[in-house]
Specification:
heterotrimer; A alpha+beta; B mainly beta; C alpha/beta; A: alpha+beta; 7-stranded mixed β-sheet; 6-stranded mixed β-sheet; B: mainly beta; Folate-binding fold; 4-stranded antiparallel β-sheet; two-stranded antiparallel ribbon; 1 helix; 6 strands; 9% helix
Amino acid sequence: MRIAGKGLNAGGAPVSFSFDGTIYEGREGDTLAAALLANDVRLVGRSFKYHRPRGILTAGSEEPNALVTLGTHAAQDPNIRATTQELYDGLAARSQNAWPSLKRDAMAVNDLMSPFLSAGFYYKTFMWPKSFWEKVYEPIIRRAAGLGAISGVTNEDTYEKAFAHCDVLVIGAGPAGLMAALVAAQAGADVILADEDSRMGGRLLAETYSVDGREGADWAADIVARLMAMDNVRLMTRTTITGAYDQGTFGALERVTHHTAATQAPRECFWRIVAKRSILCAGALERPIAFPNNDRPGIMTAGAVRAYLNRWGVAPGKSVTIFANNDDAHRTAVDLVEAGVKVAGVIDSRADVQALGDYPIFTNGKVVGTKGRLGLESITVQHSGGTRDIRTDCLAMSGGWNPTVHLTCHMNGRPTWNDDILSFVPTDGAIPDMTVAGAARGVFSTHGCLEDGIAAARAVVDTLGLDAVAVDTPSADDSAYRIEPLWQVEGKGRKWLDFQNDVHVKDIKLAAQENFRSVEHMKRYTTQGMATDQGKNSNVAALAVLADATGRGIPETGTTTFRPPYAPVSIAAMGAGAQGHGFAPERHMTSHQATLDRGAPMIEAGLWYRPSYFPKQGETTWLESCNREVGMVRNTVGICDVSTLGKIDIQGPDAAAFLDFVYCNTFSTLKEYRVRYGLMLREDGHVMDDGTTARLGANHYVMTTTTAAAGQVMKHLDWVSQALRPDLDVRFASVTEQWAQFAVAGPKSRDLLNTVLDADIDGESWPFMACGDVSIGGIVGRLFRISFSGEHAYEVSVPARFGASLFRQLCAQAEAMGGGVYGMEALNVLRIEKGFITHSEIHGRVSAFDIGFGRMVSQKKDCIGNAASQRPGLLEAEREQLVGFKPVDKAEKLTAGAHLFVEGADAVRLNDQGYVTSVCHSPTLGHDLALGFLRDGANRHGETVMMVDHLRGVKTLCEVCHPVFFDPDNTRAKETSNG
Amino acid sequence: MRLPCPLCGDRDRREFYYQGHAVALDRPARDAGDGAWDDYLHNRDNIAGEVRDLWHHEAGCGAWIEVTRNTVTHVVSGARLVRGTAK
Amino acid sequence: MGYSALKIFKEGLFGQKGWKPVWRNPEPKAEYDVIIIGGGGHGLSTAYYLAKEHGITNVAVLEKGYLGGGNVGRNTTIVRANYALPGNSEFYSHSLKLWEGMEQDLNYNTMMSQRGVINLFHSDGQRDAFARRGNAMINQGDDAILLDRDGVRDLVPLIDFDNVRFPIYGGLYHPRGGTARHDAVAWGYARGADQRGVDLIQNCEVTGIDIEGGVVKGVQTSRGAIRAKKVAIVVAGRSSQVAEMAGMRLPIESHILQAFVTEGIKPILDQVISFGMGHFYISQSDKGGLVFGGDLDFYASYAARGNLPMMEHVMEAGMTLMPSIAKARVLRSWGGIMDMSSDGSPIIDKTETEGLYLNCGWCYGGFKAVPGSGFSYAHLIAKDMHHEPASQFRLDRFRTGRGLMDEEGTGSQHNLH
């Protein structure tokens, strides 16, 4: 019910919205909850377990009941708190967890069964017969899971992430936070003031307090205006600080467009705020009281009733009752009476209290029962004068206020029990460089909060070496907070604690009875505090019940842990930017566009994209293209972009000694303008990577790494140079991006190169493994006579800016000579035919010994991995060693990932002899080839083994052979003729 | 989480690669024996409290740094360049 | 007290008054045959199997906090037996079989749900590596199916197959894998052990291990000295501290692993999905929360809490893999202390001290190992002989290089497994 002229948004324009299909009118500035209450809608949801009718409990983000779904299709957004969702024209909200309708929810039958569904009942049953859990019980339970539903449709909204830095982060813009921000800002600090509400002012917006002789809300607006005018202040509304992390880092969620129907701007932005200091002014949350049937729609916290009345001009009932154990709740009565709303009585559990206004008071009072199936109709009260029923459609309850300590617990801090306020307060130093002020540390009067905010900020700016400007504390209410313990009320009916998860007092007692006495056991056994509010409304009361049931005090009972986030954060916000291709950077070679132009399908190689094969007209399968490309390289000439290989330029007087230390073989003996294959070990003696390194001068080398290990090797070289061998005078830099490099492979490779090089080369001056500078169209490039195909081949590199044009030129020349460009598939076939290994073979578990390179580990010098590579376990014959495999029947298939067995042996683990790592169909040899590892393989060439691939249903008898299948003497690569 | 790179100042943890305990600076001689190498490669004090550990400012200046850090509280109390501090 | 549907019904009628404590709160005795240090999942299952399989009931489990308060109560609840390497293969296979009979064995519903685990692959090379793994699983007698892209799409339509940075080539499907209710596993073993006479002693921190002449004699605790013929360490992330009490230095570094759960939403995901390119795995609990996690935070830590970079990375992986979960809201994040071993595989072994046993190095895979680890550890403690399925989990493999089980192939750096 709306009270005319009442509320901060009294002049707001009408706004049309709907709930479960019914159209209502609200007012600009309303939350959805305020607008629903203004329209006398009390039933807004159903609880999780028993599907009990639920109404609005609070006026904040801690709301456990009023959760709705907004939007449809991809925009469908479940579990939106009606209490924080701002109203906009056309907003359409739907209730959740009820079928067929909120009023008649079939699953409410669970509530009738509740005597049998006590805490933890499911651990004790659903076990017979054995197969029924997955087949019968669990599917039924799963169907009932969850509250709202997500659409299952790919997200179409945008989300953002951002960083911010400041000297002082002030969390919460109530009286304490506003003063803290003002003092810090006036001292010259860079300040961020963040508040989860759409408007700053905190409880001042919900109360009728005056500050500095003016309406609290007006005073707050003035301070906000002053802050906004300062260059060193950033105000962040609708921004929840979600977590406190190390070194002053905070997570924060800004709801950018939740309050509008707009779809263009981001929905949310997840901030990473780095603050030198922080001041937590997060206020306090009111807690309910556990009395019989305290969960009916219409029963809400007393502070929420004041918020609806004072901020939005809404009376949540026509005849309101109040049940409390403290003075604060009396303000609800005073404000209601003032606004002309009937107060049917204040039931105060204390003996010596007087009414603060014109309303009936029942001292020594308790609410012992309530009535009203879908909404509160009446309550039963026991008090000094006896027992009576009171007709009421809204009961405002207050069990006291809990300081919002959550962020102070995010780094394992435990809050401290404070007997004066009967709640937990933050423990000093729980978060480094964080100060807590105001209600968040149990200072509950407005004056106290203002004063505390000033004091906190003064101390904080002092630690930053800034001088605080003197500020007078504005005048404000300073009455004491008086409270007596009242955790639960005896009586017939369930006394609910966790309203969403349907945990009541008896569940806690049952947990204690079954010896789940640890607070963590109780939580996990009963699910108390595990709902979407994470126990913000119920934990302290539940602890009190557990403490009572186990005969301990509350401090002794302890608390569970508050963990981030303070309020739930969408996966989309924290994962912003990653959807689709944004997840990882994309690296393109200089030939990328030309490759796409040629219709080559791209595959991911780490972060790079590389061409799989280059289809020619008429080719219908990748294998056709691949076979042609292999033949091209073997018979004429092929071009392949190999720029993705890591390239590291190494220079300095000790470059040779450095390479001798990082490679297991020797590079100091390498002649200038020559290239050598190098094998790099990890310090644990296993193979890290391989590649070729060229010596371009006495003190100058260029190392290549595999595509996959480029980053790892660079980091490793930094490590060795800085940490292990700082004595060596050597410098190096990654030049992978600086050089475009192309393989020119095949019998006609030299002929082709001579069409692009400014000066011809010949076999004498450029023998196998030669390297050096060359001139290409006046550009200085580099040429390496190396081969990953086994053919007479080169790799030519030019500064990357010339890569695209050189690639086109090479391709055109190759095609003119009957060759062409080849992709990864052909490259893979060519290397398997030659027994060259890749990371399929050097997969991190193999030693140099395993791949037949044991003797490369020079014992004349120390190197990384040398000592560990000599461990007995890495050198034993029974290890699996690299071999080749050919099908005995040449028509049969080989498959990578298959395992190897002695012929006739069962294909089971105990008989496992090894496995296949790489397979290809060799067009050169006309059958499948494989590389793999076989136990004692080096000594078993010529034997036959059975290759078994259960997964693909392949079983092939293979001949074990040397891993080099083609041109074992390497005569083709070493070709020296000049013709 | 932020770490103080001696060259670049306080930087976000995202810029760093973590290797492990600073024991890796004390590389044994090649012939130091199985036990010494086992301790170097595998065995760790794994202290719950203040430790020295090794980070690489991979997305920054490329320096390897030794950070003094508490493994219980994550408080960082110092950092120095590895170059020039190793044996 | 036995649990049954009838008992639930009767207690429902009579106000739940008849339920007895699930375990006792015994005072520590002066001496035990076996003391187990650590009341987590592995410690409790060890106690249970010592009693059940070997009749050794004069046993105390000493727990410094509350039972099941370690990683068994803070994981992503995944159960699987899909390892590639001998040593691991037979162990997890055995453990999975114990999972399959757990509820009837314990008379406790641990909600083991074999909803299937799918490891996605994103290149031909990864497919081959997963094929090798899947064939190893079948060699071991477990189940594995190699799905192509359409096969994955049929099972998990939620995945983005059209616009993902690392396209889905297929998946290795392990139908017998799944999830279980993690706390219930600890409670079920605790109850079973207690019923057989094991003393479960909470809030009892071990402060020293008494060794005389190379033989273990007992432990010092916050509740006094307790003698024991055998002492078994099984304390996960705290292994290095407890082992140090016996003069041992372990190949272990303790690291953080974070995990996350969203608000409950209506069921959308049936299987456990593992996305290797993003180090991301996800399932949906019976309550409706999406439960997911990623990689380590990568720095040594005992804080049991993490930082934003890995948290965001995990969310980013979720957004690229299944952007339809965008609007699910993360309700809670938490962290556990992982005892990362130097090859990523565990240790169940004797020590140089007679009567002192060691069980550690479970990295972030300890939950699925709970039954198998307890079974094999109990065997070792009772018989002083390795149980065959866990016979490769030797401590000396690092020194000798013999029998390393480096599933990831990343070498001796602890945090890379």
